[in-house]
Amino acid sequence: MSQAIAPGAKISIDNLGRELDVSQTPIREALSRLEAQGLVVKAHRGGYNATAQLDLERFDNLRELRMLLEPVTAHKAALRITESQLNELKLIAQKMRSKTARSGYGEFARLDQQFHDFIAQTSGNVLIAETLSKLHSHMHLFRLFHHQQATSESIAEHDVLIEALSVHDPERAEAAMRIHIERAFQRFSLFFAGEAIK
């Protein structure tokens, strides 16, 4: 998630073992877990590569899938969220406000994933929460690579979503999430300006 290994780069199990001062077994186990999350891929002749950066087609597929799933989680979360859960979500949002381009976008992206994952978990649908957790990993790899500063727009959109959740209004929460996802993808789509989906 930190981009210490560039997208598409070869991952040397030997080098990682030396760097971390561990045997190859835990390295292989960790890479196997990362492969299950789609963050690394097995190379043809053994070894692993970091997953390549999102292209336009996969970016659009990701947008469509998140638009199908995340508004549903917001709707369900609005019906189920407790006061203590709401306070925890507000704390995550507050931490995001304190992150600037100077402090590094990596931490903002981690908190943003935590924010979205928390709402998904609060929805009570474990399968959707697990699926979204994997999708967010891909989205944040994209963000870390192309967008190195936190946007006030994203924070403001989160505030609207929190307000809907705090009054337990599922329709408002669903609409707020839908708008947030659409606007987020519009911001990131500037990278693909001039490209066409195949």
Automatic annotation (TrEMBL):
Protein keywords: DNA-binding, Transcription, Transcription regulation
Top-level taxon of the source organism: Bacteria
Keyword Transport part of the UniProt annotation: no
Entry-linked SUPFAM superfamilies: GntR ligand-binding domain-like, Winged helix' DNA-binding domain
InterPro entries: GntR_C, TF_FadR/GntR_C, Tscrpt_reg_HTH_GntR, WH-like_DNA-bd_sf, WH_DNA-bd_sf
Ranges where the HTH gntR-type domain occurs: 1-53
Gene Ontology MF terms in the entry: DNA binding; DNA-binding transcription factor activity
KW Transmembrane (keyword) present: no
Protein name, per record: GntR family transcriptional regulator
